[in-house]
Design a protein that fits this description.
α10 crosses α17. It contains 20 helices and no strands. It is mostly helical.
């Protein structure tokens, strides 16, 4: 079920909160099993076939961790990580690899046509973070219920944020409604949920009408005029931000209502003055995962400049491929890796780019590379790029109003998390949030309800 759906907002979430509140007060030892059950219901709502996959993945990885705790064999954790990646590869990349192989004359690799389980990229990375830290001696052993909740907690299981075990496991022991600030935390969580919904419904979704028809036309081989190309490029730049950061705000808010604090995932990324700064602000939990579990193991900055540049490029290229099984995603990640390498070389050369120019260059680079991320093929992306450069004849209208509003909100800030925690508790604030929530519900019922973009990854 979608966070922006009536079944979630008016049925599942209220019922889950009531059950959780009753159990937390009357039988606290059953609170965590209840959250695991609720997370299973939430995940199974999409497709019951994949609940055993998620449950089996949790059980196998937990058994591996237990076995390693009893007898720390050197090969056990690497084998488990390889198994997790193989499972991800089977569902997400098998057909992609088959298509690549079939480009070789004489080969006829079969396509499996497997449905992609929602959230598999995210819960696979959660397994890897825990297992890697367990092998390094940083993580202790946990019971099955705690580990299952860490992997499957429903606000973040489908699209993050990527939560380290050390950020949340200790919170499972708390009695959230016994805290003196329990009511305030619940209220701030509700505000975050409302703001996240508003970002998605009022800012992100309207841009789909600016973006989707143009990219669909490009995919069909049609010529894209200058105005259309810039409209679609800038529209998607802000659409993906409000769609994904809105989801994150909702996830953080829902978790807070259940007494759990998840890490922030966005920090006004379109205010960045360099590409390095952008990746410190955009999808922050993925950025640190790539840094700690890929970039540093590849050598990081410990083995000289050439190795560091190569590690940056490889990390970002693989990060691009993680987003989607397609060469356009690989190219998107590779371009960001090359851009980060160029920034590193510029800093090492002692050259400094003025902040306004750095902001303009970073924003233009990010927007232009989003074309590859959104396009269904290189041909479609090339059609957009031709239009952006004015190489396509014809004139088209540039719809700018929704883009201008979205751009202003995205760059001026602050983040929803910071805003919510600065707001003093007042009746007027409660009334404003209630009104906003009603307006969101009316908008959801009136318009097309778009799935979150990152659900496809």
């Amino acid at each position: 079920m979608l966070f922006n759906s009536y079944v979630f907002l008016l049925a599942f979430l209220p019922a889950a909160l009531v059950l959780h509140g009753l159990v937390a007060r009357a039988a606290p030892k059953w609170r965590l099993p209840l959250l695991v059950l609720l997370s299973s219901v939430f995940y199974g709502w999409w497709d019951l076939r994949f609940v055993p996959l998620l449950g089996g993945s949790i059980l196998v990885n937990w058994l591996v961790a237990r076995a390693f705790g009893r007898r720390p064999l050197a090969w056990l954790i690497p084998a488990a990580i390889a198994g997790n990646l193989a499972l991800l590869g089977l569902f997400k990349y098998a057909d992609f690899l088959a298509d690549l192989a079939n480009r070789i004359p004489g080969l006829d690799a079969p396509r499996l046509g497997l449905a992609l389980p929602l959230g598999i990229s995210f819960f696979t990375f959660h397994h890897i973070m825990y297992l890697a830290d367990l092998r390094a001696g940083r993580a202790p052993s946990f019971g099955l219920v705690k580990y299952a909740l860490y992997i499957s907690f429903f606000p973040q299981v489908l699209a993050g944020p990527l939560v380290r075990w050390s950020e949340i496991m200790h919170q499972f022991e708390e009695r959230p409604y016994a805290r003196p600030d329990a009511a305030e935390r619940f209220g701030r969580g509700l505000i975050l949920l409302a703001l996240g919904l508003a970002k998605k419904v009022f800012l992100g979704d309207p841009l789909a009408a600016y973006v989707n028809p143009v990219f669909q036309a490009a995919a069909q081989g049609k010529a894209i005029a200058l105005g259309e190309a810039w409209q679609a490029t800038l529209g998607f730049t802000f659409q993906i931000y409000f769609d994904f950061s809105g989801y994150t705000d909702m996830a953080l808010g829902i978790a807070l209502m259940f007494g759990l604090v998840l890490p922030q995932n966005f920090d006004v990324p379109y205010r960045a003055t360099s590409l390095q700064d952008f990746w410190r602000r955009w999808h922050m939990t993925l950025s640190r995962f790539l840094r700690d579990y890929l970039y540093i193991p590849l050598g990081g900055n410990r083995h000289g400049l050439p190795r560091q540049v190569g590690a940056l490029f490889a990390t970002m290229a693989l990060g691009g491929l993680w987003h989607g099984a397609g060469l356009t995603f690989l190219a998107w990640g590779a371009l960001h890796g090359a851009g980060l390498g160029a920034g590193l070389l510029t800093r090492r050369a002692g050259r400094r780019i003025p902040a306004p120019l750095g902001w303009l260059m970073t924003g233009l680079f990010v927007a232009l590379t989003w074309v590859l991320f959104r396009a269904t093929s290189f041909d479609a992306a090339l059609a957009i790029y031709r239009g952006l450069l004015g190489f396509t004849p014809g004139v088209s209208e540039f719809k700018w109003r929704a883009i201008a509003v979205a751009g202003l909100v995205a760059t001026v800030g602050p983040t929803a998390w910071n805003a919510v925690h600065r707001l003093p508790p007042r009746r007027s604030l409660a009334l404003a949030v209630a009104l906003l929530f009603v307006l969101v519900l009316l908008k959801i019922g009136d318009d097309a309800n778009y799935e979150f973009i990152y659900f496809q990854f």
